[in-house]
Amino acid sequence: MILPKASLYLISASLLSPLAFAQGPAESPVPYDTEIRKILADRIGSENSGIGMVVGVIDSKGRRVVSYGSLAKNDKRPLNGDTIF
Length: 85
What we know:
This protein is α+β, with helices and mostly antiparallel strands. It has one domain (1-20, 29-85). It contains two helices and two strands; from the N terminus they run H-H-E-E. It has helices spanning 5-21, 33-44, and strands at 52-59, 62-69. The protein has a two-stranded antiparallel sheet.
């Protein structure tokens, strides 16, 4: 099933908003990149349908970017923090 881009933005915002507003201890555990990528893969699906997502993480260790998916079907360009959707 292919969803409109607006729906994807709303879905991603709803999935990530609890993380953005969570107020836990300064040492609260943040998932490793592999765990975040697995969550994205579970949500987006493994078929190459032109759906991608980039997640920015800021924690006590610094900043990092985790991505999964693609810009378009059969598009091999990697997604990163500079990707324009």
